[in-house]
Amino acid sequence: MFKSRLALAAAGAMVLVMAASETSLAQSSLSQSSNPEHGGRAAPGSSVDPNPVAGTRDTSASRVRGNRRAQVDARARAQAEAAAVDPATIKAEAETLFAATGTQCQITEAKLLGQTSDKTKIYEAACASGPGYIILASTPPQAMDCLVLASSAEQTRARDPNADVGTQCSLPANDNAMAVFTAFAKEAGLPCTVDQGSIIGAKPGGAVVYEIGCVGVDGAQINKGANGWEVADCLELASAGSTCRFTTPQEQAATVKALLAGSDAASCDVSQARYMGRNANGAFYEAACSGAEGVIARLNAENVVQQIYPCATAQQIGGGCKLTTTAPATAPNS
Predict the structure, then answer these.
(1) Distances in Å between the alpha carbon of 211 and those of 105, 144, 202, 216, 233?
(2) What per-residue confidence (pLDDT) applies to 140?
(3) Please, are residues 138 and 8 in contact by the beta-carbon 8 Å criterion?
(4) pTM value?
(5) For residues 237 and 243, is the Cβ–Cβ distance under 8 A?
(6) Residue 36 has what DSSP assignment?
(7) What is the pLDDT at residue 86?
(8) Fewer beta carbons within 10 angstroms: which end of the chain, N or C?
(9) Which pLDDT value is given to residue 295?
(10) Domain spans of the chain?
(11) Helices marked H in 35-145
(12) Spatial CA neighbour of 6 closest among 310, 332, 102, 14
């Protein structure tokens, strides 16, 4: 990846060099067109002798012919370059490279970004669904996810605002991060309205991990594994000491409140909630109830409440309640 980033940065430098060369050539042409010594016309009010000696006239004429030949050659080169960057041709080349990488993408648009110093072409492609890609026509070809590149650039700039972050995706169709996060959340089975999303890392095998924020309820971290999407709710992650940037305690309390609907604890006005863990009997959640005794709820795999344990009598359930200050129940005096 480091080598690729160097190549991409080099490509960006080459594009700038090419642009500078074209600007210089244009300026030179403009200068020559108004310079009598290069066969051009003298500017109004010029002191150039309109009747130069024969030898000078011959030299100027030869320069005119040379300039005309150069212009013809330049037009020929421009036509050749235009043919080389024909959109259909570029799209076909990008599709061939994608096939070689094994990346799933139905290309809707592609453009040639430039070349590396060793003449390796670099393309950007937009896909019918999912993120777009930067494609390096190396051996073998490499495809780099636009969202991953943007996330890396964001982290790099956070450390150094002036850092070179290499080539980034620029096609308008690839400015689609929220659409991608929403689609991935749906594929992963998250039953919520997505309002935020971000790439937060990668699994040891390379699978990209996304954090998904949801409107009013608990969010999650998701990644696509070999057997489908893997989901870790933010409530579960909190129990392991991790945090989610896009989920609030209030949203987690609302989630547990919804889980308690239809149970003996349905009346609990959940002010705080935590995931305690799971065993063969199900998953366990603690809920602190405003103005009432807290509870521990056991849910099955379908998230349906199977049993409610009042905090006063739940000391043996995962160490008891932590969010409720209710004193443990005591045995009556004999």
Answers:
(1) 23, 20, 11, 15, 10
(2) 96
(3) no
(4) 0.70
(5) yes
(6) G
(7) 86
(8) C
(9) 98
(10) 35-84, 87-171, 177-239, 249-313
(11) 54-84, 87-101
(12) 14
pLDDT at 226: 86
Left, alpha or beta for 113 (phi > 0: left; psi -120 to 50: alpha)? alpha
Q: What is the DSSP string of 142-160?
A: EEEEHHHHHHHHHHHHHH-
Helix/strand/coil for 295: strand
Q: Please say whether the beta carbons of 103 and 133 come within 8 A.
A: yes
**146-176 pLDDT, tens digit each:** 999 999 999 999 999 999 999 999 999 999 9
Sign of the CA dihedral running 48, 50, 51, 56: positive
pLDDT on residue 49: 45
**What is the C-alpha separation between 91 and 125, in angstroms, rounded?**
8
Partner residues linked to 112 by β-bridges: 123
Residues of the chain with pLDDT under 50: 1-57, 78-79, 82-83, 331-334
Task: Locate 50 and state its tokens.
Answer: 């309109």
DSSP-assigned beta bridge partners for residue 142: 136
pLDDT, one tens digit per residue, over 76-133 is 554 455 445 788 999 999 999 999 999 989 999 999 999 988 999 999 999 999 999 9
Q: In what order do the strands lie in the sheet with 295-299?
A: 270-279, 282-289, 295-299, 305-310
Name the amino acid, one letter, at 112: L
Give every strand in the sheet of 133-136, ordered side by side: 107-115, 121-127, 133-136, 142-145
| CB-based contacts of 2-6 (< 8 A; 24+ apart in sequence) | 4/136, 4/138, 4/142, 4/144, 5/166
The per-residue pLDDT for 164 is 94
Residues in the chain: 334
